[in-house]
Amino acid sequence: MHVLTEHERERVRGSLHRQNVDAGAMVCHRGDEARYWVGVLDGLVKISSVSVSGKSLTYTGVAPGGWFGEGTLLKGEHWRYDVIALRNSHIGLLPAECFFWLLDRSLEFNRVIVNQLNERLGQFIGQLQIDRLSGADERVARTVAAMFHPILYPGVDRWLRISQEELGYLCGLSRQRVNKALSHLCSLGLLQLRYGGIEVPDLNALRAYESDGAEGEASVLRGLG
Q1: This prediction's pTM
Q2: Between 136-146 and 107-132, two packed helices, what is the crossing angle to 10 degrees?
Q3: What is the C-alpha separation between 88 and 117, in angstroms, rounded?
Q4: pLDDT tens-digit profile of 35-46?
Q5: What is the chain's Cα-based Rg?
Q6: What are the residue ranges of helices labelled H in 62-202?
């Protein structure tokens, strides 16, 4: 909002719908027409799909302050994935008409969308790397670090409200395995567990572990072999 003019802000305020979504409920359903740019005002959602065989694949989570669906709107497509609330969430829905109105008149908003698309592309490339790593510790570390992205999720500072079960949904791991990985990362000083969430003292250090951790290096070498 801070990059918009007052007139543009008023248009957004008058157009934005707000919706409370219960944990486990759908925010967006695969195959439905995409009519909104969607934001997580509060809560946590996951973007996922289910294969023909019934296997569920989680692409990413969206933390408070995060918006998604701009690519789908720009291409005029239907949703290609399901978006499910992992906890009771407060969702913002900006109608496509207002979204394109902003694109047509605001250079600053266009820059926001370009940055969003660029960062999202980088995130999904990172997700592909996660899927190719066999170590659970790297998977947990990368998933946590991704949720602290300052551009995609500006509502998250140094503390993320998330349970081990929710993190397991995003990582594709059991709660028990997530607990073990978190304990290991905490022993390295990369994370601090707080009641109901996770604090990251040094995000750069956590990201360094993601790319340079010994277990991850061994996984890559095994893959090359």
Answers
A1: 0.82
A2: 170
A3: 27
A4: 999 999 999 999
A5: 18
A6: 70-75, 96-105, 107-132, 136-146, 164-171, 175-187
